[in-house]
Amino acid sequence: MADSVRFPCMPFPPCFLVCTRDDIYEDEHGRQWVAAKVETSSHSPYCSKIETCVTVHLWQMTTLFQEPSPDSLKTFNFLPRTWRLESRNTYRGADAMHWRLVNHSQFYGTEELVLMLDSR
Q1: d(Cα 65, Cα 29) in Å, to the nearest integer?
Q2: What is the DSSP letter of 42?
Q3: pLDDT per 10-residue tile (average), the chain, 120 residues
Q4: Which of 36, 81, 85, 115 is surrounded by the most beta carbons within 10 Å?
């Protein structure tokens, strides 16, 4: 009898994320998410068209830094203050922009969401 391979169970992505600090968001379960990386590129693995692509990498963190870095204040100030999950793979920002959930994974215990600005 062959052993079956078991993969860790991924929780559902958050229903909403509310900005509590410049680069920190909180979900409906009180979990903290940090905007770890923002990429702006015309050549991205997430973009299929030739256009500017904005992707945000959010990491669920159990321990946060006390103070935001000065660089994050400049880099992330254009992100929406709130994201709400509208469908299985689309978030709507407080600014009415749509963000596509392109990846929800876990790597070495860190849960990650990758959102891409959808240019509808």
Answers
A1: 20
A2: S
A3: 51 92 93 93 61 88 62 65 94 95 90 88
A4: 115
**CA dist., res. 118 & res. 120, Å (int):** 6
Q: Domain residue spans in the chain?
A: 16-118
> What are the tokens at 63?
């321990």
Question: In the prediction, which pLDDT does 24 show?
Answer: 94
For position 11, what pLDDT does the model report? 73
Measure the CA–CA gap between 64 and 62, rounded to whole angstroms.
7
Domain 16-118 has CATH 3.40.640.10: no
